[in-house]
Amino acid sequence: MNDLELFEHYKTTVYRYCLYMLKHKGDAEDICQEVFVKAMLADRSDLRNEKAWLLRIAANECHSLMRRRSRGRDKEQQVFLQNDPLRHALSVETAYERRETAVEFGSLLGQVKPKFREVLLLYYMADLPMAEVAEMLGLPLGTVKSRINRGLRSLRKLKEEQDIHVKKGSDVHVSNY
Amino acid sequence: MGIVLRVTEQQIRQGLRGLPDGSPDYEAIWQRICTEVKLRRSGWNEQPGLPAEKPTASRARRWVVAASAAAVMAASGGTAVYFDHAANRAWTAADAGQKLEAYAEAEGVRLTLNNAAIGRQPLTEEEQMSLRMSLRETAGRSFELAEFGESTLTDLDTGQKLEISGTKRNIFRRDAQGEEPVLTQYFSGSLPATGETKRYRLTMKDLFFNQTVETPLEGEFAAGSEYVAIPEEDLKIKITAYDWVSGGNRLNLKYEANRDWPDSQSGDLPSVFSKEPGKIVIKNGEKPLTSPVWGSIGAEQTWSRNTSFTFRKPEGQQIEDLSFAYAYVRTTDKASGEWTIDFAVEGSQAAESNYTLKIDGQQALEERTGMTLPEAVVSPFEVSIPVNRQEGNNGLPGGRFLFYRDILLQVDDLEITGFQAPIPGQPYVPPGIDPKSPENIAFDLVPDAVTDLSGKTLTLKLRNAVVVNEYPDVWTGIEPPGDQGQSFSETMPDQSVMAYKVTRKGKDVHVQTLTENKFYLIGGTHLKVDGRMYESDLNETSSKYGGDFGYRIDVFKNVPEGSDFSINAGSYGVYDSSRDLDLPISD
């Protein structure tokens, strides 16, 4: 698979993983870009599972960014104002798109803890075997299973709460008329 | 009336599998990837960083790999072992907050909980509690790095486990005096309010003692050579590519290992510490010189059997004087057991290091910048300075002030680097900053373990003001662009030199402007063809600013063949050191 084929084949998987891990479109684009830059600079001749490998890079990049966020030590913060700010400007369309997406399933996922969200994305969205997820994250298989279950429970709870909220809202609306 | 709704697992699975991607512009991402790959292959890419000579700490830290030194620090989960220059400075702060001095012992190791401090997490509105711990007795064990396998903090009144903020690793490293290994860990969640007391239980399990080990890679270092990297594990590496590029300043290195990274969980006392993958380091004699360039494949967290690294040749070194070694972390001892400490935290005492200080010299600051910084809000973890200024042109002579590029907080003889964000009129904000939040200057004290500023001499140092210059009448005439890039330059009225490289790519024209990081482009270049103005496509713009190198590439779409081409630099920021200021901070 050449570079362009690699990008075309896996761009959506890598980007979606970054988007739902980082919850920020600009950051997701930057990390997705970095993942494929690294992939193109690497020797892939002996690579057996390109998707898992790309997601491993993506996971590491996302972890790094989230750590930098949490520590407030983002190296890029030093030079962020020297970078082209307009590249990151939100268009009206983008802002609208973000609002639209926010009411969908992804917004619920965004409320799930990162450690659970991560395994849910790798297992269900990226369709990686559980053992691959465990190896990629350096976790015992049992921990991955447990995180998937806890993540699913958390999502289910959030979904039910949202549905109840919508249902209640609709009841109030009807009663007012 | 109760509402019963059941969401099936199947629905959840379908939702996860059908997550939308929000339709990003993949074509633009691909273009940026290609540009970046091309630049990195050409050896142009430098990672962003501050000028190398400044002895500042915090965000300006630079890392070199550890070989045999006293303080080893692993920055976060899974990272390779790095040695932090700043960790060895002879400066330490008194502990803030509430003194605890509670301890637990197991396996001859005494874990002491020294103090607890509460304050706002850096860059957020949420509070966190720091617990400072130390290993006061280790039964004579020798180690560089000690790490517990697990730590939990439980609220004894509710049973709730508190979240660990930041790194989950429990790494003890020696303090500035090199005496007792210390760890400060941060928790959020169930914290006591002012006047309230909460009871907690700290539980730590299984302590690993680790040393950094190097295996020299002797003989001629070249592609095809094979070396034993970790003798105990029969881990060998074979060099598959060894190329000095960029005029001998960079080394592209590839190697493959004969086996996977050893799994240290399988043995009671593993020969390698599995959380820290090994790597090749460059040396001159006994002195470790450099680790792989930040951003190299595999240089951050990953270890794979086939690995590519890029090294930057240390300044002033000759290639023939360099040697190579394989560095990894070995577990030398393990204390299996559990350390449990019950303690109580009183909210007011733990939060006593939160206060405000006055910043002097406001008139001079306002005259130079149009902004004022009246006070510094201090917490145990951060110093935050709200910025007061009007948006728009501040009417100052010599260009509109935007911000200071280098902002330092001097605490006695330590300098901590801060940053200013969000800047009015600049849409991009760094990750973690709410773009709608008030403009602020922030200094993160956590990386420097500064926990108490009381009694210290504090100075706010503002350097290299960025001001905006724009010369709409200065157009540089150029030849009609062709497939081969053509170079042109223009010396602007402020003596900034714009070095343009112009290339036609099909219907589009690419204008690359090299800045050498003496200035940076804000709005981007403008192109005029036979009297008609063209604006670049911002989605295809790319830029990189870091080290001594900086550039921006503007892409003008669908530009016709013409005869009269000219370029204007647009608005750009220059650094003005005449506005540098030192502002004392006082009670």
UniProtKB/TrEMBL annotation, chain A:
InterPro entries, A to Z: RNA_pol_sigma-70-like, RNA_pol_sigma-70_dom, RNA_pol_sigma70_r2, RNA_pol_sigma70_r4, RNA_pol_sigma_r2, RNA_pol_sigma_r3/r4-like, WH-like_DNA-bd_sf
Domain RNA polymerase sigma-70 region: residue ranges: 6-71, 109-157
Keywords: DNA-binding, Sigma factor, Transcription, Transcription regulation
Taxonomic superkingdom: Bacteria
A Pfam family: Sigma70_r2
Entry's family note: Belongs to the sigma-70 factor family. ECF subfamily.
PANTHER family the record matches: RNA POLYMERASE ECF-TYPE SIGMA FACTO, RNA POLYMERASE SIGMA FACTOR
UniProt-recorded name of the protein: RNA polymerase sigma factor SigX
Lineage, highest ranks first: Bacteria, Bacillati, Bacillota, Bacilli, Bacillales
Gene name, Swiss-Prot/TrEMBL: sigX
